Amino acid sequence: MRAMWKGAVAFGLVNVPIKLYAATEDHDVKFHQVHAADGGRVKMLRTCSVDGHPIEFKDLTKAYETSTGQVVIMDDSDFEGLPVPGMREIEVLEFVPSDQVDPVLLDRSYYLEPEAQALKPYVLLREALAATDRTAVVRVVLRAKTQLGALRVRDDVLVLQTMLWPDEVRKADFDVLDTDVDIRPQELSMASSLIDSLSTDFDPTEFRDEYREALLAVIDSKLAGGQGRNPASAVAAGGDGDGIVLDLMAALRESVERNQASRPAPAARPASATKGPTAPARPKATAAVTKTTAKTSTKTTAAAGRAVKTTSTTAAKKTTKSSATTKQSRSRTA
């Protein structure tokens, strides 16, 4: 595992340097959106909803939208001076009985590993929590966000579980539960018997994600059947010379995409050079851009077609000339 955070647990005058590791990992089967025809990945472009122009990452900033639709744009200076506790400190606020921590408040879990020189105070805190059956309520800053947390012992390791703030838990308010229900003693006894028949010690290793296993089996079956694709090398099939033109366009497009990473982004065009109407008429501007793009694409395809046709004609002429020269040479030899 790789440490995601370094800091210290502070309780009283004791300071325990630690490293923080994610205690869980996501095993969900990941999918991408692709073009069904050729398996190419779909790229999402950031565009401005006002002028429709693409936006680079450096031009992004945060904003807060009010209930009335107003937008308050924030910059780095607005976050300075806010009451944020120690950025690299897990501050112990109090120790509470472990059974008083409502599980619905718990969020993500992290393992705490002590630095070599802090092993003794780490073990001291661990043993004290276990002996008193207490959980330490702490405050910590993770990913620039102040969070409440519960520090407890699990398998001889201190575990930090971030917690939701009380106002982030919704209240369960269901009117139907206010209705009086008559439960007979026999029904309660039968339900208790059913619970007793299914009662055992909890062992999470006895359970598995059957849906995930079945889904991976389907994917493996499709791969074994030759249904896997390699979009980078996929070419469009065509007839009457169309395949050659499409292959050429695909090769040019792939070359441009490979070089984009090593070349600086082109400078933005001045506002005066931008075609199309102003922001209020956004639909027309989008149509104009689409129309221009379509014309450019048509011209490019036509040019590529003429280039292929010219190449084929030239090759044919060279072949005819070569054949004539060969016949003439044979005639002279005879």
Description:
By secondary structure, this protein is an alpha+beta fold. It has a domain at 5-25 and 85-168: Ku70, Chain: A, Domain 2 (Beta Barrel). 35% of the residues lie in helices and 20% in strands. The chain has 6 helices and 9 strands, in the order ββββαββαβββαααα. It has a 7-stranded mixed barrel with strand order 1-2-6-9-8-7-5. It has a two-stranded antiparallel sheet with strand order 3-4. β3 (62-65) and β4 form a beta hairpin. It starts with a strand and ends with a helix. Residues 234-248 and 270-334 have low confidence and may be disordered.
In terms of topology, how is this protein built?
Blueprint: E1 5-11, E2 14-22, E3 62-65, E4 71-74, H1 76-79, E5 89-97, E6 106-114, H2 119-132, E7 134-142, E8 145-154, E9 157-163, H3 185-197, H4 210-224, H5 242-260, H6 282-333
Helix pairs in contact: 5-6
Spans of at least 5 consecutive residues whose pLDDT stays below 50 are: 234-248, 270-334
Share in β-strands = 15-25%
- CATH hierarchy, class of the domain at 5-25 and 85-168: Mainly Beta
How many DSSP H or I helices? 6
Q: What is the CATH-assigned architecture of the domain at 5-25 and 85-168?
A: Beta Barrel
Percent of residues in helical segments? 25-40%
Which structural category do the helix and sheet elements fall into?
alpha+beta
Shape: extended
Distance between the termini: 83 Å
CATH topology of the domain at 5-25 and 85-168: Ku70, Chain: A, Domain 2
Number of strands: 9
SSE run: EEEEHEEHEEEHHHH
